[in-house]
Backbone:
């Protein structure tokens, strides 16, 4: 319970271990299980689709690098791409993030189709995979900013800065953990999404987390 308390505060695992006088590997294992709880809740109670008439979402992709210890090893094979769809209806903005094997239209367009409501405006950069976004029946308007020329289109004011800024907070968490294994990346992203959409403010996040813990492990259920 004490680890859960610090986990809901989003404290680094090293700090949790020091505060509770626990081995850091033990804290890491517990936090990984708590991330699984968030991930399962995201899968069981999806918050997508979002957007709708008059709403704007912004799409972007970013590479998450796995940095090997002492910069040794074949790092390129561990790199992962993450696709993000960020809604500007909320402050701070919220979004959906998924690890993808490819960044082509066949991968990204179905994700956009699945994650947004009809009538949504979609802003992207000029990556080739987005050229057919306006063919999706649920997209009201597709606007593009060419980053090779500017980050904010001077004529239309279109930009994807909310999507781009979301990467910094997610990569900060990755950095605090001294990197993430590729197979753990989606669970980590699910946890961050859960905090955005379901965690609530600092006064309620503990109550909200205990609630989903009870859903997944009813009284009398042995915890493996």
Residues:
């Amino acid at each position: 319970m004490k680890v859960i308390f610090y986990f809901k505060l989003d404290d680094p695992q090293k700090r949790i271990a020091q505060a509770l006088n626990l081995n850091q590997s033990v804290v890491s294992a517990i936090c990984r299980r708590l991330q699984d709880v968030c991930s399962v809740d995201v899968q069981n109670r999806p918050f997508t689709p979002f957007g709708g008439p008059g709403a704007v979402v912004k799409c972007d992709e970013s590479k998450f690098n796995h940095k090997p210890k002492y910069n040794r090893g074949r790092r390129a094979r561990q790199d992962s791409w993450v696709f993000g769809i960020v809604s500007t209806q909320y402050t701070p903005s919220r979004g959906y993030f998924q690890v993808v094997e490819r960044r082509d239209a066949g991968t990204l367009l179905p994700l956009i189709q699945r994650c947004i409501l009809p009538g949504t405006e979609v802003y992207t950069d000029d990556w080739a995979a987005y050229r057919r976004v306006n063919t999706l029946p649920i997209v009201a308007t597709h606007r593009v900013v060419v980053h090779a020329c500017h980050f904010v289109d001077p004529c239309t004011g279109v930009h994807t800065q909310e999507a781009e800024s979301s990467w910094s907070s997610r990569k900060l968490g990755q950095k605090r953990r001294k990197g993430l294994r590729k197979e753990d990346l989606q669970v980590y992203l699910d946890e961050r999404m859960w905090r955005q959409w379901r965690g609530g403010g600092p006064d309620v996040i503990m109550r909200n987390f205990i609630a989903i813990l009870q859903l997944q492990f009813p009284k009398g259920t042995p915890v493996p």
The two ends are 16 Å apart (CA to CA). The longest helix spans residues 24-44. Strands lie at 50-51, 56-64, 80-87, 94-100, 116-117, 120-125, 139-145. The chain has seven helices and seven strands.
